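To fix ideas, we reproduce below a protein record of this kind.
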Amino acid sequence: MSPLVRILLFRPGGGWFGGSLLRGYLHTSYRLPISLFLLLLLLLITPGPQGTVLWF
């Protein structure tokens, strides 16, 4: 299971399922840069030069 899936499924305090959508987002907003960084790495290691040229 990837870290991104763990962040989406297992949020502290119940996340989205323990309150309103906004409250869940605010509670986990500090994890957003980590998720984006992992997604960026995933895109960069995909085969082909397009990803590297696109992001750099």
Observations:
- The chain has a mean pLDDT of 59.
- Residues 3-55 form one domain.
